[in-house]
Write a structure and sequence with these properties.
By secondary structure, the protein is mainly beta. The chain is about 5% helix and about 40% strand. The protein has one domain: Immunoglobulin-like, CATH 2.60.40.
């Protein structure tokens, strides 16, 4: 039985066969405040890796996060992979860092007091380049052949509502 593209994408998104969520960058249920001692120093949200093979972090050109309609300043965000924390604007300079398909990554936001208990609408836009180094054209038209659309950066978006429980 032939399936439509929509049916196949729905299967991938919902199937337990696929433990990786390759369709949505925001990891469901992962928004939480960051607490050190008794101080709330900000919040974090985990990201799904959108590649079954993993991604070089240098392919990320930009990450924009909005919480409750307010853009999060990039200077308040870091990309955290294990113990490694990289400011968002510095991701492109880290060609030695590979985000493996099952590695846990979060965006940590430094904001005194964190987020209040209750619902929060989170939106993300990720701009990333193709991680394969293809050359463009055969050189017969000079070194500046037009770049095919396949090689332009991808814009990946997601948004979701998260609920933070009241502090105990």
């Amino acid at each position: 039985m032939a399936r439509t593209l929509a049916e196949r994408l729905d299967f991938v998104e919902k199937s337990s066969v696929f433990s990786l969520n390759l369709m949505r960058p925001l990891k469901e249920g992962s928004l939480k405040n960051k607490v050190i001692g008794s101080a709330v120093t900000g919040y974090s949200i985990q990201l799904n890796n959108l590649s079954y093979r993993g991604i070089w972090v240098s392919t990320f050109e930009d990450i924009q996060l909005t919480v409750d309609g307010e853009p999060v300043p990039k200077h308040n965000m870091v990309f955290r992979l294990g113990a490694l924390c990289i400011p968002i604007d510095d991701l492109g300079g880290h060609s030695e860092v590979f985000w493996g398909a099952t590695d846990v990554v979060s965006l940590d936001v430094y904001q005194v007091g964190g987020l209040s208990a209750g619902e929060h609408h989170v939106a993300i836009t990720i701009k990333r380049r193709n991680d394969f180094g293809h050359s463009v054209g055969d050189g017969s038209d000079g070194p500046y052949d037009p770049i095919p659309i396949d090689f332009l950066p991808l814009l990946i978006t997601d948004d979701a509502v998260f609920v933070l429980p009241a502090e105990r």
